[in-house]
Q: What sequence folds into this?
């Protein structure tokens, strides 16, 4: 039967070509542009800085992409980003050590995800509203427990280096998480059911898929990724700041996913696309910083760049589909 | 009767004070196609949901292969070979055909990873076997026509070993050519002899064409039951008109 003549590998390549090619082109054009206008762009130290721009949004994008695919969003993830390293630090200050601190931070992150998911799924509050509420709630909580002051991130230099302070380590963590999440989305039932729940909620439920479990699980996953990213950044910077992360990192993560081809309407998306989306945003941020562009102008440029990237992405995608059928 | 696949005896269903079904009995034999006709509100959907285990009847008894059963859930009904193809099709548009064929019954390798290759191969073979033609099992369902989608949904139910297949308006909103494909598909399943099909229908002529037996429902009761070849669209419409006249007279 002709249905099986294409091998999986060919098929995969073809899909990649369709879904992510346009945004890869955008990323490459940006890299070429910045390396032409600024000789420092493609140098070791700058690539390291660039990798640090990309890593946090790429990690959080993995969670937001899973949520967007199953038809939800988490606006509060940037506040977990700020809270998690405080929980780790306070646990360490209490004499329980960094490891227990990390475990506690993950438990609290997972709990916040559970609350986000339960309110959204069981009490039927749209996730946009649920997580807007928890956004303020967690932010207030973090400011209260920290009294609004940053503290030094505990742990020695070795630990800090492993968890993101040295070289490309934070980026390597991001790549590891991206690879794992890509496998989860494409090669595990969890990922397939996440797509099914977002693509046809009634249909997925009729097929016996527990949609509540999938959604709540993805909320917990996103919160935990937010917590992990906050901890990595706290190690990298050496300071645990109650105002770190916030809506900025959340919007960057969502934008990374959407630029990478994840549909806001649910039912489709790719983790690799999210990584490329985060790269595009990182290149823009880093490139314009090198250029010495004014911070006010910078936001306008980022905004315009997101719009242009999205328009290009959607329409190149449409051309591809038109050419296929 | 050894060939009887399903019997529902004197089924009633009340939702609060409202009686949706007041004493419905039906049966379907192995390899038989039963067409259920009736207006909106006749109780067809409620009856379907009782047979699929979604609703529990207020009273009455179900028998499968002659044995009394009390369905506790949709999964329970499914484990007994009762599959339903709903109008909304339960297909995920953004997934390829082969993932839809195996939705929530995915094949996995020994590492617990999805076995895409095996699912692709088996889906293609199953569709071939059931007689559904698609360009490629890798195509997203969104790219298919309504008829193709219905065919995939039916094929999925058949492939999952349905013994009693319920079809909720399988020809709704379909052009003549598409409907023809689905009618062919239903008739091929009928010819196998081991699957019983219960279809909910609106179109009298199409129902007479496919079904072996017809059951007509109005306001929660059966108003006609008989062999398709012994009746006609006119005769069925006569019954409906008579019922309406009686209803109007009763209301005055």
A:
């Amino acid at each position: 039967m002709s249905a099986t003549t294409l091998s999986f590998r060919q098929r995969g390549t073809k899909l990649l070509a369709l879904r992510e090619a346009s945004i890869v082109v955008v990323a490459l054009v940006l890299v070429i542009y910045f390396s032409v206008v600024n000789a420092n762009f493609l140098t070791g130290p700058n690539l390291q800085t660039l990798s640090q721009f990309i890593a946090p949004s790429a990690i959080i994008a993995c969670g937001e992409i899973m949520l967007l695919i199953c038809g939800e969003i988490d606006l509060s993830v940037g506040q977990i980003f700020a809270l998690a390293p405080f929980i780790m630090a306070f646990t360490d200050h209490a004499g329980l050590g960094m490891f227990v601190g990390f475990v506690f931070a993950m438990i609290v992150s997972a709990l916040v995800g559970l609350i986000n998911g339960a309110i959204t799924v069981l009490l039927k509050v749209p996730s946009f509203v649920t997580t807007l509420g928890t956004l303020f709630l967690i932010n207030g909580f973090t400011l209260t427990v920290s009294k609004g002051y940053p503290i030094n991130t505990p742990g020695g230099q070795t630990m800090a280096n492993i968890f993101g302070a040295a070289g490309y380590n934070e980026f390597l963590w991001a790549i590891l998480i991206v690879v794992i999440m890509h496998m989860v989305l494409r090669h595990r039932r969890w990922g397939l059911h996440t797509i099914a729940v977002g693509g046809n909620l009634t249909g997925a439920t009729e097929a016996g898929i527990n949609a509540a479990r999938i959604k709540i699980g993805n909320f917990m996953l996103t919160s935990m990724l937010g917590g992990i990213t906050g901890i990595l950044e706290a190690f990298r910077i050496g300071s645990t700041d109650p105002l770190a992360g916030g809506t900025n990192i959340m919007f960057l993560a969502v934008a990374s996913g959407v630029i990478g081809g994840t549909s806001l309407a649910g039912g489709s998306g790719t983790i690799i696309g999210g990584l490329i989306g985060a790269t595009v945003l990182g290149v823009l941020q880093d490139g314009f910083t090198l250029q010495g562009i004014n911070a006010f102008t910078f936001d306008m440029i980022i905004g315009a760049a997101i719009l242009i990237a999205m328009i290009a992405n959607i329409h190149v995608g449409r051309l591809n589909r038109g050419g296929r059928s | 009767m050894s060939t009887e696949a399903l019997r529902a005896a004197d089924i009633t269903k009340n939702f609060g004070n409202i009686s949706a079904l007041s004493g419905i009995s039906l049966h379907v034999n192995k390899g038989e196609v039963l067409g259920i006709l009736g207006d909106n509100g006749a109780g067809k959907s409620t009856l379907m949901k009782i047979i699929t285990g979604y609703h529990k009847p207020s009273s009455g008894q179900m028998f499968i292969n002659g044995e009394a059963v009390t369905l506790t859930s949709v999964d329970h009904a499914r484990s007994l070979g009762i599959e339903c193809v709903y109008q909304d099709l339960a297909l995920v548009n953004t997934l390829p055909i082969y993932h839809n064929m195996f939705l929530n019954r995915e094949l996995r390798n020994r590492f617990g990873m999805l076995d895409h290759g095996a699912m692709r191969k088996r889906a293609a073979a199953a569709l071939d076997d059931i007689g559904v033609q698609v360009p490629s099992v890798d195509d997203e369902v969104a790219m298919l026509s309504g008829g193709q989608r219905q065919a995939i949904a039916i094929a999925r139910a058949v492939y999952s070993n349905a013994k009693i297949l319920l079809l909720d308006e399988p020809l709704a909103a379909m052009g003549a050519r598409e409907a023809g494909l689905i009618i062919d598909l239903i008739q091929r399943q009928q010819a196998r002899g081991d699957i019983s099909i219960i279809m909910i229908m609106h179109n009298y002529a199409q129902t007479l064409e496919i079904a072996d037996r017809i059951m007509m429902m109005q306001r929660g009761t059966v108003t006609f039951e008989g062999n398709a070849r012994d009746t006609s669209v006119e005769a069925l419409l006569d019954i409906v008109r008579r019922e309406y006249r009686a209803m109007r007279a009763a209301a005055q």
Observations:
- Strands of chain A lie at 151-152, 239-240.
